[in-house]
Specification:
Elements (H helix, E strand, L loop, with lengths): L1 H23 L28 H8 L6 E3 L6 E3 L2 E7 L4 E6 L8
Antiparallel strand pairs: 1-2, 3-4
Amino acid sequence: MRNVHMYAQNLKKSLATLIAFVFFGFSAQANDVLVVGQIAEPKALDPAAVTAVNDFRILMNIYDGLVRYKDGTLEVEPALAKSWTIYWTFPTFILLLCNYICRCD
């Protein structure tokens, strides 16, 4: 009877270790890999083409906008743009960008 009890304890420890490896993923990953846990694969990473909430959550962490809404309001505040001017006679928006902005393809 004692051997059965010890076997059961060892089995529990082994299962706990296996579960830890499965859930915490002790696997080798490259240092330059971004791992994101989402419900599904994104359909697109183009901000103009995204309609799904799942895709939008990923894009919000990749792209930064020129302007954004202040928290809890619909008031627009600068993000990557320091300031802007709107010309209503000929609908034009002129944005002055922050000094640390660079264009990337």
